[in-house]
Structures are given as C-alpha cells and as structure tokens.
Amino acid sequence: MHVRYILRICVAPSRIHFLCGIMNIVDLIAIVPFYLEMGLALIGIDIASLSDIKGALLVVRVLRVLRVVRILKLGRYSSGMRTFALTLKSSARQLGMMGMVLSTGVVFFSTLLYFVEKDEKDTPFTSIPAAFWWAIVTMTTVGYGDCVPVTIPGKLIASGAIISGVLVLALPITIIVDNFMKVS
Questions:
Q1: How far apart are CA 35 and CA 23, in angstroms?
Q2: Are 97 and 181 in contact (CB under 8 A)?
Q3: DSSP for residue 173
Q4: What is the end-to-end Cα distance of the chain in Å, rounded?
Q5: Ordered per-residue pLDDT tens for the chain, 184 residues
Q6: What Cα–Cα distance (Å) separates residue 97 from each residue in 76, 102, 140, 156?
Q7: Residue of 22, 117, 113, 31 lying closest to 70 (CA atoms)
Q8: Which of 179, 93, 165, 115 is nearest to 135 (CA)?
Q9: How far apart are CA 112 and CA 109, in angstroms?
C-alpha cells in the first residue's frame, strides 16, 4: 500500500491534483499513522505510556479504517452500484427530510422517556443523551431488549416511538422506488 501510493504520486500527471483527490487523501490518512507509530518507536518513545498523545493516536488509528471507503471505487465497474448511487443522488432531498424528521423524533421521544423514567430504580435512562440510543433503535425498528421502559407511561411512549418510526421510514420508500425506476 505504501509503495503503491508513492509510485502513484511519482507517475501522476499533476501531483497537486493527485494530492487533492478525496480517495488519495483517504489513502494518505491511512498510511500516516503507521509511519508515525514507527517513527516514535525508532526514537525510543513508548506509545502505550504516553497519555498525552494516546487519544490522538486512537483518532488516527480510527482514521485508518477509512481505507474501507476505497471499495466504493469499484462502483464504477458495476452497473448495479451506479444505479444505486444515482438513485441515492436523486433521492437526496427525501432522505435528508427523513433524517431530519427521524432526528427530531429521537430528541422528542428520548426527552419524554427520560422525564417519565428518571425516578425509577435502576433505570438505564440517566439522561436525555443516554436515552438517545434507545430512541434511535426503537424508531428504526431495530429493537434493544436490555433497555426497556419500566413504567406504563414509558411503554406508551415506546409504542408511540415505534409507530412514528415505522411511518417516518415507510413514507419516503415510494419516492425512492419511483426514483429507482426512473434511473434504471
């Protein structure tokens, strides 16, 4: 990977254009942590013992996962991937609206649930942000068995979250299918 990146820079017609490409930036971010860790080890700095840069190195290691994004380049060779990408592009407004309504519902239902369940013993809903995860998995119909409301009002709020989540996710489906039919 490292040698290939250097060779690609050397043979690029425009190095500036090459370095500004999104996928090439992702490649560079994926390569830098390796050399950073190796360089620190060569000069005798134990990375595990440095608490100051430990968090920064964790962030850099997470950025290495961005290499997976490179698989999206295979989409240009697949007509199905191209159709899917064009469908998503033509449905961007509807998907954005769905995300906005879903996030509003998450805030609404997690706030309601927190205020109903906060005084219960051993509740997992210790704050509104702690209830966000519950609201997200409830509204997207994933479900989360270990984190359920205890009280009857909490269960009613959960029922409302489930029903509104199904509606929010189901309504844009017809528009997306219509856009898919237009693209293909």
A1: 19
A2: no
A3: H
A4: 36
A5: 578 888 888 888 888 888 888 778 877 777 777 777 778 778 877 666 665 666 666 666 666 666 666 666 666 677 888 888 888 888 889 889 999 999 999 999 999 999 998 888 888 888 888 888 888 988 887 776 567 777 888 889 988 998 999 898 888 888 888 888 888 7
A6: 28, 8, 15, 26
A7: 22
A8: 165
A9: 5
